[in-house]
Amino acid sequence: MTLLKLAEKQVAFLKMGLYGPQGSGKTKTAGLVLIGLHRMLKAKSPIAMFDTETGSDYIVDDFKEAGIPLMVHKSRSFADLVAILREVQGGGYFGFLADSVGHPWEDLMLAAKIKAGVTRLSYYMFGPIKERWNEEYALPWLNAKLHCIICGRLRTLIEEEVDEKGVKTLT
Q1: Positive or negative, the Cα torsion across 56, 61, 62, 66?
Q2: In this structure, how many other beta carbons lie within 10 angstroms of the beta carbon of residue 132?
Q3: Which tens digits make up the pLDDT trace of 27-86?
Q4: Under a CB-based contact definition with an 8 Å cutoff, are residues 118 and 168 in contact?
Q5: DSSP per residue, 121-143
Q6: Contact, 99 vs 76, CB < 8 A?
Q7: Tens digits of per-residue pLDDT, 3-29?
Q8: pLDDT score at 1
């Protein structure tokens, strides 16, 4: 018995991540990819953007020129990111761009610090944070029946510190 079978054409949705330093062209590239895909598939519905850094201001003219509505929500809140993703999954949208996902991630970490009453997160605290991120955002994003692109800021240095009790934290 074989698990392999002949490949067949099936419906697929783009899931793309762009990662790099500020000013490297992540937002512009994501916008152009969505515009090109929209044109190629002769779509009619708008594209939604969750904008944490006013990146939509740099691509709005590209969408206007292409005749594609770009619906934007500007926020850095994890709760808003989840709400917008749910909204676009409800139908009527061709694609979803989240730029940059680092800010909602930081919002989620800040909430964990406040809840725990600490100023730094230890390693063991990341499990519940990652679990919430995956359940509320990452898995719904991956399973969304629309074309999705996320942009993430490059962080070049992460340091590990160990306090007097031997507890490890990341900075």
Answers
A1: positive
A2: 16
A3: 999 999 999 999 999 999 999 999 998 889 999 999 999 999 999 999 999 999 999 999
A4: no
A5: -BGGGHHHHHHHHIIIIIHHHHH
A6: no
A7: 999 988 777 899 999 998 888 899 999
A8: 82
- If you compute the radius of gyration of the chain from its CA atoms, what whole number of angstroms results? 19
DSSP 165: T
Cα–Cα distance between 27 and 162 in angstroms, integer? 37
Query: What CA–CA distance (Å, rounded) separates 52 from 100?
Result: 6
Phi, psi torsion values for 117, nearest 5 degrees: 70, 35
Place of tokens 């969408």: 63
Pair of tokens at residue 171: 């900075």
Q: DSSP of 12-78, one letter per residue?
A: ---EEEEEE-TTSSHHHHHHHHHHHHHHHTT--S-EEEEESSSTHHHHHHHHHHHT--EEEEE---H
